[in-house]
Specification:
Layout: H1 3-34, E1 37-48, E2 52-63, H2 66-90, E3 95-110, E4 115-131, H3 134-144, E5 150-158, H4 161-189, E6 194-206, E7 245-257
Antiparallel strand pairs: 1-7, 2-4, 2-5, 3-4, 6-7
Length: 258
């Protein structure tokens, strides 16, 4: 056996195998390279109306006796809740929620006595009224203002979760459409056409532009002598204004190029 010829044959066969393998890898890479893609970002910015208005109402009474304080607060609370229950017959989407019922000793620093002195027992009932009709809230505020033991705060307008979810989904669809239009423009410039959507992801980059809080405190002055506090008369509630909420959605999409 001629070892020299054998070695030459082995080398020759090895070279052939290497070339075949290299040719396969080059062909495979070219095939991958041929699957052209375009990556774009679509955007959607939308204003969403605040469809709910809420206000927190507190009924507070300070008396020397806890039972008297609780009785007064419960009487006013009953009148307010009865009024809201009647309203619900014509405005069924109006919600009423009791947040707290509590009573506690109320003390105040006395400069002359150099100590905290007991003023009495304060009874507090806190409830929240929510409705889709802000004009109804104005009417409610005007109605309950006639009670001198009623304090309102945390008046706010906001977008409900249901509406926000619907608007967000619409915005995702709009941002995806915007991404495809951008992909078409890029493809046309390169002499290609847009194929199927390969993958996509979205992010909500902005939330509510305005908190919706009016931060209005409507209460009646309480004199040092609690019984001397003036009885309040009902008043015309101010008109309520607020900015819309804003949502901003971005969609990162990858399209096939044909």
């Amino acid at each position: 056996m001629n070892l020299k010829n054998l070695n030459v044959n082995v080398i020759f066969i090895s070279v052939i195998v290497i070339l075949c393998f290299a040719s396969y890898k080059i062909w495979d890479a070219e095939k991958y390279k041929g699957a052209r893609q375009v990556v774009v970002r679509g955007e959607c910015l939308k204003s969403v109306a605040k469809d709910r208005t809420a206000v927190t109402v507190e009924v507070k009474n300070l008396e020397k006796n806890a039972s008297i304080a609780n009785k007064k607060s419960m009487e006013t609370y009953g009148k307010i809740t009865n009024y809201i229950v009647e309203l619900k017959k014509n405005f069924p989407d109006t919600d009423l929620e009791t947040l707290a019922v509590e009573s506690y000793e109320r003390r105040e620093w006395s400069e002359s006595a150099k100590k905290n002195v007991l003023l009495g027992i304060e009874s507090v009932i806190r409830l929240e009224i929510t409705t889709p009709d802000k004009e109804l809230v104005e009417k409610i505020l005007a109605e309950i203002s006639k009670y001198s033991d009623v304090y309102t705060n945390n008046l706010r307008m906001f977008t409900s979760k249901k509406l926000m979810k619907q608007e967000q989904e619409d915005c995702i669809a709009e941002a995806t459409k915007n991404a495809k239009e951008k992909a078409k423009a890029l493809a046309k410039a390169g002499g290609s056409k847009v194929g199927k959507l390969l993958n996509a992801s979205f992010s909500q980059t902005a939330g509510v532009s305005s908190s919706g809080y009016v931060n209005t405190m409507m209460e009646f002055a309480v004199a040092e002598d609690y019984e001397a506090a003036p009885r309040a008369k009902s008043f015309a509630a101010p008109a309520l204004f607020t900015k819309d909420s804003e949502i901003s959605v971005s969609v990162n999409a990858t399209f096939e190029l044909k």
